[in-house]
Amino acid sequence: MTEVINKTPVEALHRGLSILEILSADLSGAGVSLAEVAERMGLKRTTSHNLLKTLCLCGYAENSGGGRYRTGWKLQRFSRERNLRNFSRDLALRNLGALAKSTGESLVYAVLVNNHRQVVARASGGQDVQVNIFQIEPDHPCFWHTVTGRILAAFCLPQELEQILINEGFPGSQWMGIASQELLQQHLEQIRKQGWTSDLSGEVYSAAVPVLGSKSLLLGTLGIHLPVFRHVQERDPELIEGLQEAAAELARDLLANAGKI
After folding, report:
1. How far is CA 239 from the centre of its chain?
2. CA pair distance 69, 61, nearest whole angstrom
3. Which CATH superfamily is domain 78-260 in?
4. Same fold? 11-71, 78-260
5. Taking the model in full, what pTM does it have?
6. C-alpha closest to that of 129 among 226, 233, 236, 239
7. What is the domain partition of the chain in residue ranges?
8. Rounded to whole angstroms, how far apart are CA atoms 167 and 51?
């Protein structure tokens, strides 16, 4: 006769996952108190505190202040990666293609995967003279060399930026000679404030904007590249506005597509 096992094989893991469910269900943004977690779990406060402390150390929860807890940065990263798993290249190309057709210029959509920049879609504007986006935006260049990489660094989670710096180091000659944490944060904060970035390097003008989901969660970045002889500085606001509108439409489509899976 087979013995029926009522308890889960690893009870501590089961308790930790149950706490994550409690934190995920909180929509207030203020977090859930230790006392409430202990009560709902039917555990002592010390046991609940140790479980929450472990979840925080692993990045799955965080202390939001005042003895309250909420889901951590790793769950936000998992949400982005889930959207990427459900990513429709045809859908992205439709959005990129529309803007490429209206501007006549080359576009690229890049995402952050395991703290590395990855290009997932490209579109050509069809003009006789085009920027070689495979050269300007290769799949895995130095992170800081591209405007799309700088956007990803500016809008990613702080913990992800730490890992990017471990992998890539400071920009140095790749971007404004930046070689310190303070200077890097100043430039990234400026990008966040204006909501876009641009670069004029050699014969190419480049600009990029973030593609943001709900609660400003980074989904990716949309970049445009054009020969400098076609760049008219007075039209930059129009160009950026077009990029931002395309990014917002792309975000809506990507999230709607993810919801269907």
Report:
1. 23
2. 7
3. GAF domain (3.30.450.40)
4. no
5. 0.77
6. 226
7. 11-71, 78-260
8. 30
Q: Compute how many other C-beta atoms are within 10 angstroms of the C-beta atom of residue 5.
A: 7
Q: In terms of Cα–Cα distance, which of 213, 214, 210, 186 is closest to 196?
A: 210
Q: What percent of the chain has pLDDT over 90?
A: 39
156-211: pLDDT as tens digits: 999 899 999 999 999 999 999 999 999 999 999 999 999 999 999 888 999 999 99
Which amino acid belongs to residue 65? G
Looking at the structure, give the CATH architecture of the domain made up of residues 11-71. Orthogonal Bundle (1.10)
Q: How far apart are CA 76 and CA 62, in angstroms?
A: 12
Look at residues 165, 160, 124, 122 and name the one whose alpha carbon lies nearest to residue 142: 165
Residue 169: C-alpha distances to residues 119, 139, 144, 164, 187 (Å): 21, 19, 9, 7, 15
Strands (E), 150-254: 197-201, 204-212, 218-227
Average pLDDT score over residue span 119-135: 69
Tell me the CA distances in angstroms from 172 to 163, 175, 178, one per residue in order: 17, 6, 5
- For residue 127, the tally of other CB atoms under 10 A from its CB is 15
